[in-house]
Amino acid sequence: MSYASYKLLHPPTGITNCASGFITHSPADFVPPVSPLDIDAEAVSPSVGPIPNLIVTAAHVLEVYRVRVSEDGGKDVAVEPQRGGVMAGVSGASLELVCSYRYCISV
C-alpha cells in the first residue's frame, strides 16, 4: 500500500500544522467605533479588532475556521479578574468551520 493511499484510507487523528491568516475577510474591513455624541473623544470603548482565520492541516485535510468572539458586556468586573493584551474585553470564543478540503497528497 502506497503512502498516498494509506493517507486516503485512514482519516487523520491529529493536527499536523496550524496557522492564522485573513482568508474570508480583510483586516481593512474593521472600522473602530466612533461615539456620535463626542467626536473629539480620545478613548472609545474598547472592542475586539479584526481576528484572523485559523487554518489547520491534518495529514491530507485542510480546514479553515472563523473565530467568533463573545465580548464582555455589562458584567460585574469585580467578580472576574481583568484580562490584558489580546484577551482584554473577551469573555469567550468559538470556532466556525468555513471550508474543508481533502487532498490526495499530504498537506
UniProtKB/TrEMBL annotation:
Domain of life of the organism encoding this protein: Eukaryota
Entry protein name: Cleavage and polyadenylation specificity factor
Source organism (scientific name): Artemisia annua (Sweet wormwood)
Organism classification: Eukaryota, Viridiplantae, Streptophyta, Embryophyta, Tracheophyta
